[in-house]
Write a structure and sequence with these properties.
Layout (H helix, E strand, L loop, with lengths): L1 E6 L2 E3 L5 E9 L3 E10 L6 E7 L4 E3 L7 E5 L5 E6 L8 E10 L5 E5 L3 E5 L2
Parallel strand pairs: 2-11
Antiparallel strand pairs: 1-3, 3-8, 4-5, 4-9, 5-6, 7-8, 9-10, 9-11
């Protein structure tokens, strides 16, 4: 099984910064891509940023120039650095791993989410 745990959410003022972390554990055979998604109240979950094992990175237009995805020294840790936060960034943020759990089986794995609230 694959387990993801996010942390780092909280309350921040507009223009402030916050860093989210995601730690993966369990049986990950090979990673296809990793990323962050978010869901605001009453809205659909949306892509924030993803990066493939080949190094291809993309960001939603709304966060380009403000958010940065990065990975730790191993595939076990994922970060999202958020700068110049705006009211529209308020959402529950989810870590995502798209990965093979064995040589022939792949799927999307999600954390429980961490709340980011931009206010003041």
């Amino acid at each position: 099984q694959v387990q993801l745990v996010e942390s780092g959410g909280g309350l921040v003022q507009p223009g402030g910064s916050l860093t989210l972390s995601c730690t993966a554990s369990g049986s990950i055979f090979r990673i296809i891509s990793v990323g962050w998604y978010r869901q605001a109240p009453g809205k659909e979950r949306e892509l924030v940023t993803t990066v493939t094992e080949g190094g291809s990175t993309n960001y939603a237009d709304s966060v380009k120039g403000r958010f940065t995805i990065s990975r730790g020294d191993t595939a076990d840790t994922l970060y999202l650095q958020m700068n110049n936060l705006e009211l529209g960034d308020t959402a529950v943020y989810y870590c995502n791993y798209r990965a093979y759990s064995d040589v022939v089986t792949w799927g999307d794995y999600w954390g429980q989410g961490t709340q980011v609230t931009v206010s003041g």
